[in-house]
Every structure is written in C-alpha cells, then in structure tokens.
Design goal:
Layout (H helix, E strand, L loop, with lengths): L17 H12 L26 E2 L3 E3 L1 H4 L9 H20 L2 E5 L5 H15 L3 H6 L2 H4 L1 E3 L14 E6 H4 L10 H27 L17 E7 L10 E6 L5 E6 L5 E5 L2 E5 L6 E5 L1 H6 L9 E4 L6 E8 L6 E2 L11 E2 H15 L11 H5 L1
Parallel strand pairs: 1-10, 2-3
Antiparallel strand pairs: 3-11, 4-5, 5-6, 6-13, 7-12, 8-11, 8-13, 9-10, 9-12, 14-15
Helix pairs in contact: 3-8, 4-8
Length: 370
Amino acid sequence: MTNSLKYPKSGSNSSPPLLQNYGELLQQLHKVPDTDNAQAHNDHGIAVPPVLAPAECQLPLIDLSPYTRGSNRSLILEGEELERQACAANICRASSQWGFFQVVNHGINHELLWRMRREQARLFEAPFETKANSGLLNNSYRWGTPSATCPAQFSWSEAFHIPLTKISDAACYGDYISLREVMMELAAAMSKLARMLVGILAERMGHQKGAFDSMCEESTCFLRLNRYPACPVLSHDTFGLVPHTDSNFLTILSQDQVGGLHLLKDSQWVAVKPNQEALIVNIGDLLQAWSNDVYKSVEHKVMTNEKMERYSIAYFLCPSYESLIGNCREPSVYRKFTFGEYRHQVQEDVKSTGRKVGLPHFRLQQTLAS
C-alpha cells in the first residue's frame, strides 16, 4: 500500500467520553501551580512535564516469499528449501532477540487490508451510543479502562474484540453488513499466516510444524479492531494502550501510517517506525513459556497522538482454554498450566493490582532462586 488512507474526521458524537474519564484521573495527580509559564501546561490547565521522545527503530524485516511463493505446489525445489531455511532462521532470530518482527510478501492481499481499513473507519464513525449499546459484533465494543485508578492504567482508545466464531454471524453486524465479507476473508488469511509462522517457530525447536494446530480454536482466537482517537491531553503517562505483553501464542498486526507503537528493547522504550507495506508479528506469553524463554514476549504499548487518530487491526492466535501449555524441552522453566488458568490469573492480577503480572507467576521456584 503506497497511498495513505485518509480517514473521515470523527464527529463528537462518535467518540467515547475518554476526556471526561481520563481528565478526572489526571486532576488527581497533577496540581496546577500558580504560574504564568504556559508552556508547562496543556490547554486543559494540567501540568505536563517535559518528555524526551524515544529513539525510533526499524523492526527486523523478513521476506516470506520462500514460503508464500508457489505455496500451492506440493514439490519444493532444492534452492527453495535453502531459502526457506534461511527465512526460518531469520524469523527465529528476531523472535529471540526482539520478540517482534515485520513481514512482507506474507500472502495477504494489500487490497484486502485496504478494504478492511475503510470498513473499520466507517464502523468507528458510528455514534458512540450505537457502538456501546446496539450489540454490534457480538457486543464486543470496549473503550478506555473502566477499572483504572490512575492515568498509568488508562488506555485512550476504543476497540471491537471479536471471537472468530462470531465473524461469520450476519446478525452481529446490524447496518454494517458490508464489513462481514471483508472480516471473514481477512480472519481466514491472518489465521493461515499465524499458523504458518508458529509452525516455523515450533519446527526450529525440534517439533512438528503442526504442533499447535489441534490446540488453537476459533472460539478463543480473536480479531481486534482498534481506534486511537487524537488526544488533546498529552502527558508523560497518556497511553493509547497501556504497557503489556500479549497472553497468546502469536499476534499479527496491520497498522496505518500514523505510528505510536513502542516496545522495550534492551530495557529502553523504542518507537516502531510504521511500514505500510509490512505486517508486524510479535511473540505472546504462551510461546515464550512453551519455548523455555527462547522466544520472547516483549512488553509494548501505544502512545497517543495530539492531532491524528490511529487505526490498527490485530489477530490473536490462542489455544482452547483447556489446552495445556507444556514445554518444548526439559528442564522446564515454567510449570505446566492451561490457557484458562493463565487468563484467570491475569484477570485476578488486574483486579487486585491494576496491572498484569503474567508469566512470573508460573515460573518454577528453583528457577526463581537460581
């Protein structure tokens, strides 16, 4: 995609009341001093400390054409096999060193991604009351962070988080039925790509490519449509999406040209340079646990933009809730646990502490003590 998609400007009745909720949290922390220094405050009178912009990084870029070229052929030529081995090595290296990488020639049609973004923008243009109360897309609409008690826990965003089993249900779409065909096609394409990538990662650890096929079901895999409205309340802790790791095997992300995705690299936050020609892939907690920390589930966040809204689409590859997350080799770094147990622990952590703890709960004691 070489052209920038110009999204329609969101009207005041389409955006959720983020400013009201977030502003109340900020007022609890920032006391405005009696000063004429206008540069120290935003338009809402809230003190804003100076923040240094993080360095911008280019994620490892991997060409998947050795796997997607001639994918319908049963015969793989000798030269193609060597290309595949080199490609697989790059995927595993990026998964170990970064936990993130981007892919081109991934097999998903750019026109399909373009159509999806147009439909997504149209959906988010719906009045807030329609999105929140009409049961659209399996009643999957979410905004902000209702449980937040401080700005560091609040996400300046809105999203539809839809299980794959509901994407084909025409009754979920209301007046947005044209979205259905596009979402079904995109979900199938992203599912195929995610399973191919996780298969490559499994094979490099000495397991069969289909090691996760029987575990991953449509009922627990999700497609998430995100919108990050322009944010007039800029401060050091204004997140579009709070820092977190993904509680799954693998995530595939399609984002627009606005940027805002940041990740931890060598204990420093870095901003990911947008690349509209590529999809972003990141490792989730379950794959880190299964690989005994060979593949890294890296903390990441989305930062707000004062003037521009940002759109993204994420696909989450997850196992069934009963699936046991084992280890690829012994000795194990983590005790065995099910996906359902992991999700429950995350929910309990957020309820009691306001944040996800995640994998450290499941490390074996001897590992923690060593």
